[in-house]
């Protein structure tokens, strides 16, 4: 029997969220049901509720950085039990039969089902974590280690895996590598922490000179480059093995390509709503690559959260009540957050 749920939803592309009642499916034999305690606010949530990518459906309950406590498990669930700390990231389903699914790359499955804004196997719309309860196939749930606080673990389920996966795949997450991180926001600050935990040298690239002290003293970056300072950029030409570009606004790529050594890679993980310009000559002159990466498969997501627990990597957060969510969206648009908003669902989302 379906269960009643409450959340906050946007109803049109104004993006304004308000209380919303809906239902979750009954716990199936392979499902894990959990009480949501915290949910991070991702830049994707903002893009989606405002229909900036052009494919939003309403009502939209956003949120794909979700953590909580298991309250019920289906009869065939093997990896979770009632009382476990659990998380859900950006996806809640896939086909389980394609080559990507077979390779633990459910994130690249053509039939991947997103945590919100998709249609589930049973034909119902998916609703995200700005809500009091989640029901998820156990294959898409992540066990949260005891040593990570739940609130600062939440953003790792999107922001964390988004930067962890390319650091691994492109060979940048190891000692001896010099990694640039372009943009010091929700994604960027976690990229710095993971790259440092892997043993790499890290340079933050930012348009904001006032972030320098924080980048180096608080987040552990080795150096800081102001991208609007021609002298600083000139001095750093051809010094980096790779750059993780986390910026989700329109920005030029040629200055970043100039920072790469020969055979270096610029990895795009931000999602600007307008196409960027990519001149080809800077790629030819130095055999440089521009690549992309989108979250990670479930096996790698579990690996990421376990690595984070072992190495003390956690997001820097500002915890907010649910009724502050519209203000938080406005502030995020202005980059006025250090560095991720996390909604205290457990204590502030009430049925009334």
TrEMBL record:
Residues of the Enoyl reductase (ER) domain: 15-343
Transmembrane intervals: none
Pfam families this protein is in? ADH_N (PF08240), ADH_zinc_N (PF00107)
The GO terms describing molecular function are: oxidoreductase activity, acting on the CH-OH group of donors, NAD or NADP as acceptor; zinc ion binding
User: What PANTHER family does this protein's entry cite?
Assistant: ALDEHYDE REDUCTASE
What organism is recorded for this protein? Nepenthes gracilis (Slender pitcher plant)
The cofactors it requires, by name, are: Zn(2+)
Keywords carried by this UniProt record:
Metal-binding, Oxidoreductase, Zinc
- Residues in a coiled coil are none
Domain of life of the native organism: Eukaryota
Descriptive protein name? Enoyl reductase (ER) domain-containing protein
Cross-referenced SMART domains:
PKS_ER (SM00829)
Q: Which family does it belong to?
A: Belongs to the zinc-containing alcohol dehydrogenase family.
